[in-house]
Amino acid sequence: MPMSIAPKPHRPTDLKQPVGKKPAATKPRAAKTPAMNLAEVRAFITALAGANPAPRTELDYQNPYTLLVAVVLSAQATDVGVNRATKTLFAEAPDPASMVALGVDGVARHIRTIGLWQGKARNVVELSRQLLERHGGQVPHDRDALEALPGVGRKTANVVLNVAFGEPTMAVDTHIFRIGNRTGLAPGKTPRAVEDALVRRLPPEMLQDAHHWLILHGRYVCKARKPECWRCVAAGPCRYRAKTPPPG
Ligand code: SF4
Fold first, then answer.
1. Is 110 among the domain residues?
2. Are residues 81 and 48 located together in one domain of the fold?
3. Which range marks the domain in which residue 215 is found?
4. Do 134 and 156 belong together in one domain?
C-alpha cells in the first residue's frame, strides 16, 4: 500500500519575522522643525550678520578665474586642503593659458592631496581651454555659460556669481541644506528647494552675504552631529526643538 506523504504546513512567504518573535518596533521619526515666519527669518540672519559683519569665503583666490578653479577643486575637499594645493598651482598657472600649457599631469602634481583629483585635473584644464576658445580667457558673468563648463554645476556657478560678480545668489552646500531644514529657516527636500526658499524668504538686501553667514555658521556652530546651540547667537529665532544644552 502506497505511503501518503502529508504536505508540510504552509508558511506565508511574506513573513519577514522569524516565527514566534514580535515584529521589531519602528523607531519614531523626529518631528520636522516647523518653518520660521518671515520675522524670525530676518531675526535669524540679522543675528548671524551681527556676529560677522564682513564675511568672506575661506578659499584663497586672486581674481574670478582663480576663484572658479578653487571652487571646482573644493567639491568633497576642505577649504584648507584646497588652499594648500592652489598655493603652488596658481604660482605656476595663474591664468587659463598657463593652466592649459601645464596640462592634466602638471595640474595633478599640485592637487593630488585633495579628493577626486584625477577628474578635477582634467576639468580644470578643459574649462581653461574653453574659457580661451569661447570667452576670450575671461570667466563669463552668465549662469548658463558657467554651467556649460566642465566640472561646473549650479552650486559652483552660484558661488562664482555671488563672490566674483556680487550677485545675490545662494549656493546650497551640505551646511546650508542642513541649516535650512534643521532650524526652520528654509525647509526643503532638495538643495534646489532650499535655495529657492532662501531666495524667497531672506531679506533681499542681505541675500548676497547670507551665503557666507550660513556656510560659516554650519561649519563652526550649527554642526552636523552636534549643533553648539548653547553658544549660538541665533538660538532665539531658531525653531529646532532639540537644542543642545551647555556642556557639563
Ligand atoms: S540654536 Fe542650535 S540648531 Fe539652532 S541655529 Fe543655533 S546651533 Fe543651529
1. yes
2. no
3. 38-55+169-231
4. yes
Q: Please provide residue 30's backbone torsions phi and psi, each rounded to the nearest 5 degrees.
A: -65, 140
pLDDT in tens, the chain (248 residues): 444 444 444 443 333 334 444 444 454 555 689 999 999 999 999 999 999 999 988 999 999 999 999 999 999 899 999 999 999 999 999 999 999 999 999 999 999 999 899 999 999 999 999 999 999 999 999 999 999 999 999 999 999 999 999 999 999 999 999 999 999 999 999 999 999 999 999 999 999 999 999 999 999 999 999 999 999 999 999 999 999 999 98
Q: Which amino acid is at 216?
A: L
Residue to mutate, 46, 176, 225, 232, ligand 1, most ligand atoms under 8 Å from C-beta: 232
State how far the alpha carbon of 155 is from the alpha carbons of 59, 72, 159, 188, 191, in Å.
15, 10, 6, 16, 9
Strands (E), the chain: none
What is the domain count for the chain? 2
Calculate how far, in angstroms, residue 124's C-alpha sits from the geometric centre of ligand 1: 37
Amino acid at 225: R
**Widest distance between CA atoms in the chain:** 97
User: Is residue 138 assigned to a domain?
Assistant: yes
Active site residues: 155, 173
Same domain, yes or no: 126 and 187: no
Whose Cα sits closest to atom 8 in ligand 1?
222
Q: What are phi and psi of 71, to 5 degrees?
A: -70, -40
